[in-house]
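Fold this sequence, please.
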Amino acid sequence: CEYGIVVLSQDYIVSFWPNKEYDSLYPLMENGKLIPIIHGLNKEELDKFDKSLHNIIYRETDEYSIEEITDEIYQKIKCDL
C-alpha cells in the first residue's frame, strides 16, 4: 500500500494480529506515509508500544475531532497525488 492509517487503542496494542499488521506497515513511517491515530492511550502506554512514534506526527482523538483528523489525512494524501 502507499499509505497506512492505523488507529492505536488499548485493544489494538495488546492484540496479536493488529501488532503483526503494524509491523508490516512500519516501513511506511520512514516516508511519512504511516498515519497513526491515537485513541484512548496515554503517553506511557504509547511509549511502551512504540517509542519511535514520538518522532512522527500523530493525532489523538482526545485533542482533535474526527472531522479534523480525516480532513488532515485527505489533505496529506491529496498533496502527494
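The chain has a mean pLDDT of 88. The first strand starts at residue 4 and ends at 8.
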